[in-house]
Amino acid sequence: HEYQVPDLDVPVAIVWGEQDRRKSPAELAALQAGFRNNITIKAPDSGHYVQEESPELVARGLSDAKYLWTN
């Protein structure tokens, strides 16, 4: 997978369920490399539906990363 988005200059939050059987660690690495300005929120006990499986962790991660979207 390749996710090069050179013209996209906005912060990106990558929310990743580490138990996801559909997505590989290589795909996460490609996303992180493709989006220059990113933060990765990893949910160790979640699969593909991270927002539903770990809503508190996702909310906390996004709240902690709010500096990306504010000046």
Structure description:
There is one protein chain. 34% of the residues lie in helices and 17% in strands. With 71 residues, the protein is of the alpha+beta class. A two-stranded parallel sheet has the order 1-2. Strand 1 (12-17), helix 1 (25-34) and strand 2 (38-43) form a beta-alpha-beta unit.
Widest sheet: strand ordering:
1-2
- Mean pLDDT score: 88
H/E order of the elements?
Answer: EHEHH
Number of strand segments: 2
* N-end to C-end Cα span: 32 Å
- Helix percentage range: 25-40%
> If helices are DSSP runs of H or I spanning 4 or more residues, what is the number of helices?
3
Strand composition percent:
15-25%
- Structural class, by secondary structure, is alpha+beta
Largest sheet: 2 strands, parallel
Give the overall shape, derived from the CA principal axes.
flat
C-alpha Rg (nearest Å): 12 Å
In short:
This protein is α+β, with helices and mostly antiparallel strands and 71 residues long. It has helices at residues 25-34, 50-53, 55-64; strands at 12-17, 38-43.
Strand-helix topology:
Blueprint: E1 12-17, H1 25-34, E2 38-43, H2 50-53, H3 55-64
Parallel strand pairs: 1-2
Kindly list the characteristics that best describe this protein:
71 residues; alpha+beta; 34% helix
